[in-house]
Amino acid sequence: MSVNLPASLRSTTMLLRTLTADQNDALKRLSTGLKISSAIEGPDQFFKARDLDQRASDLDALKSGIAQGISTLQAASTGVTSVKGLMDQARGLTTVALSTLDNTPAAISARKELADQFNTILNKISDIVGDSNYGGKNLLRGKPATYNATDVSVRAASQITGITRVEMTGVINQNDYRIEVDGNGEISGNAADIVATQDALGLAQLSIGGINALNGGRMDDIKFELRGTPGRDARLVVLDGEESWTTSLTQAQLTAAANSGQKIELSHSFRSGAQVDMLIDGNSMKQALQATGVVRAQVQRDIDLEIRVTNNEGVTISRDARTQDQSTRLREGENSFRFDGGTVRLTIDPSRIQDAADVSSNTYGDLGSLTNILKPGAVLTKEMAETRVRLGVERLGFGAGNIALNQYAQKTGGSSATWSYADISGGNGVLGGTDANASRAAFEIDKAALQGTSSSGTFIYNRDPGEGGLTTVADGDYDNGEFLNPYVSGWRANAELQVTYGALVNGTRSVSVSDGLGGSFSGTLTDRGNNQPSIVRLSGGVNDGASIGLFHKDASAGQRTIFILPGQDSWVTADDDESRSRLDLQDMSQWNGFQTDAAINVSIGGADSAGLGLRSLTVTQTAIDTGQTTQENVTISNGAFNNLFYVLTSGPNAGANIRFDGPATATDLNYRVAAMGKTLQNTPTVVVRSQADGETATLSTRQVSVATPENDLTVTLNSNGSSKLEIKAVNVDSGPLGLGIDKAANGWRDRSDVAVAIQDLTRADGRLQGALRSLQVNMDVLRARDNFTSEFSIVLRGGARSLVAADQQAESAQVLTANVRSQLASTLVSLMVQQQQRILSLF
């Protein structure tokens, strides 16, 4: 059944329902703050607001990436600050090094220690850079293309004799570096050091020479010590590394030298090849002695030795062991060759490096008494072992042209010297001995300057003719080779050697020798072959320690007599058996005073040839060089005679003495005499070094890795990715691709090495400041973008809310209005119902 309501009540009820709905909607808007919460309520505003909210959300998402970018930049900036602190420490080390630039061992060691500390700091810089990583990105370690020397080329360079270590540092590009060793090894001394040493030690003259040894050479200074106090004996010590040479000089010797005006001459050769020659002034050395007991000096050793390194652009950097520029001097240990593209570092062994040198063939050494007489010429060999030759001038026969050079030649690596002689009768010959594998050189000699000259001063006469058995080099024919004998030394008294020898069996023979003065030798001699003498050294007597060389001519046994006459100025030989039989040791010792080589003929007449009881004696001398002949006639008593002493009265040898024996019958005696008035002192030693092409190698640098952006940082700045900040990683490692600070050069031995480090630090400061500015600029950009993003997000959200947000006051007023109207409507409905009930109660 339907209920029909009055129209007024129905209208009021509908109003009440509408007011309730409006109130609920207003309450909803108040609770949500939105006047539009769905597309139905306002599609245009709803979708516009949603788009603005989405943009704001996208910007909020970008803020996280921007914040991480800022943190990465802050980590890098902190790393740069720490690196700057370490660089300041490194600069402090260079300041200390510059304050200790003395050339004393202590100062050199101190600088080496500072250089090692410098290198340690460089390593620590790299550690800090490596630890500056944030979120997987390290903005201080960019990854550019890297370069290094190839292993093959490093090994090849390390094979150069005398180079013990090869390293390439600071490489920034691809290149090739050719390494060459050059120089003949000639040694000299620093002129200023020589003058200072002469003054300090009381030397009248000091010279440093020689040739750097192929095995055992040195590069350090030659040191001198004068030990002793005033009024006491002196000892002069010369130090060449661990090798020393000591000479003792008594006060009596120094005084005698001072009083005579003569200088004491000393000379010594060291294993390194250095030759030290000096003249000592007696007074000056006495005055040089100090109360402290020792005076020290040193001379810088200069060597003709150079290492050159040349790159592909033709740039050459060299280090020379002879230059006085300490910044480019070649030294023992590490030597740096700094190019724009990298630094070649070679560690040098001074004892071997000379063997790698490119040598233009030459002959070196102190010619001593043969200076300006012997002129070495072209070397005749190539790539042969170096030969050290001790020379001695000997007679090969009579006349100025008959001269020989004894040669005691020892090649590098040889166990002992071999003997040979060069016949220089023609004025030229070959130095270097007979070894086919040794260096040899031509030479010329002034024969006239050597007339009457010998190095040994000892006359050896092989009295027994013949070539068999064991003999001197003389063959007994009283002609060429009569005087030539090697290894003769130490003879102090005339001696008549009796030599008895057995047969040669399996290369050896028994030998006994006696000089009749208490000296003897008994033992076994080995045939050395190659015409080399065996050395006999006597023991006992006045000639104790004296030596002579004997040759194995054939295998036969036998005996022979050899005369030894030391200090004889006229050497006489017999030309035939009769003459030989009339000349004994005592006679030969009395032949003296000859000024030129001569042939002496003594014609002795028969009994009564000069009258009753008298015999004629005619002495004819013929100068061998000029042919000048003079004759002298005297008479002597009949009968045989012994030890006839005769003084020449005419000719070029007037005043010379001769002595001989004679028979009772007529005979002719024939002799030849070599005038040996001069004895050479300071026997020269020369070194023959073959031409050598030298050892070379090429150190090649090649790219070993490509550039990668793995540490670069990209920060997105807007929602669609169209705006980005690309932050390139920098490299502040200490190495060449970063700050470019190379390792300390040469242990900071010289000011220039420290200056290179200072230059690197100065350049690195600029690079580090540039890196820091770049980081700061990027950080400022990100911070500005971060602020913009935050503020713009607020704007967007505000705009979105303004489109859909409810008006709180209006909605509240609407709720109140609806509430009042609802109450009024409810009251009206109630009244209307009551009215209807009263009406119904009437029925």
Shape: rod-shaped
How does the helix and strand content classify structurally?
A: alpha+beta
Q: Quaternary state, please? A: single chain
Fraction of residues in helix: 25-40%
- Measured distance between first and last alpha carbons: 21 Å
In the predicted model, the low-confidence regions spanning at least 5 consecutive residues are: none
Mean pLDDT: 85
Task: Give the C-alpha Rg.
Answer: 55 Å
Instruction: Please state how the strands of the largest beta sheet are arranged side by side.
Output: 1-42-3-13-14
Strand content: 25-35%
Largest sheet composition: 5 strands, antiparallel
- The number of distinct β-strands equals 44
Total number of helices: 11
Summarize the structure in words.
With 843 residues, the protein is α+β, with helices and mostly antiparallel strands. The chain is built from 11 helices and 44 strands. The strands form 13 sheets. The chain has a 5-stranded antiparallel sheet with strand order 1-42-3-13-14. It has a 5-stranded antiparallel sheet with strand order 17-41-19-20-21, with no helix packed on it. The protein starts with 6 loop residues before the first helix and ends with a helix. The model has no long low-confidence stretch (mean pLDDT 85).
